[in-house]
Amino acid sequence: MTDPTTERSPKARFDSLSGSVDERLYSQMTLIRQFEERLLQLFEGGELFGTTHCCIGQEADAVGILNHLDERDIVFSNHRCHGHFLVYGDRPELLMAEMMGKAGGLVGGRGGSQHICYHGFHSNGVQGGIVPNAVGMAMAEKLKGTGGMAVVFLGDGTLGQGVVYEALNLASLWSAPVLFVIEDNQWAQSTPVEKELAGDMVARGRAFGIRSGEITSTDASEIYAHFADIVASVRETGRPRFEVVHTYRLCHHSKSDDKRPREQVEARRVGDPVPLLARRLDPSVVARLDAEAGRRVTEAEEHARSLPFPDPSTLEDSLVSAR
Question: d(Cα 302, Cα 47) in Å, to the nearest integer?
Answer without folding.
Answer: 13
